[in-house]
Amino acid sequence: MSKKVFLVVLFGYTTLFIYLISFLLRTPFIGIEIVQVQQDWKIQDFAHPEWAENYNIERGDIILEINHQPIKIADDATQYVIKGASSILTQSTQGDSKLIKISYRDFPIQSFYWVLLPIVYFIMSLIICIYLKLYRKESFQSINIFVLFILTVALTYGAIGPSGYLGNISVFIMSNGAIASIILLLHFLINYLQLLDVNHRLIIKPTYLYGILIISCLLTLSEKIIPTIYEWNTIFILLGIAFLIFYAFLMLLIVYLKYRKQQLLVLLFCLVGPFLPMLLLYLLPMLLFQQHVLAMAYCTLFLLLIPILLMLTQLPDYLFDVDYEISKIRYYSMLSLVASSIVVIGLYFILDIKRLDAFKSFLFLFIVIFGLFYVKERIDYASRKVLYSPKGDYVHFVYKTIEQITHMPSVDKLLKHFSEALAQQLSVSHVEVHTYSTANRVANPKIIENLALGTVKRVDGRYIGCLHETLDKKYIVTIANEGGLYLKKEELLCLELLIMYVSNFIDNTQFVEGLIEQLDTSQQGNPAWLKKYIWLQLENEKSQLAQELHDTILQQQLYLIRELDVAQIDKQLIKRQREYLIQLNVDLRHYCEQLKPPLLEKQGLRVALNKLFAEIERQANFTIIHAIENVVLDSPELPLLIYRTIQEMLNNALKHSQATYVKITLTASTQGFELVYFDNGVGCDLSEIDGKNSMGLQGMKERVYAYNGSFELTSALDEGMHIVIKVKE
Question: Could you say which of 3.10.50.40, 3.30.565.10, 3.40.50.2300, 2.60.120.340 is the CATH number of the domain covering 604-729?
Answer without folding.
Answer: 3.30.565.10
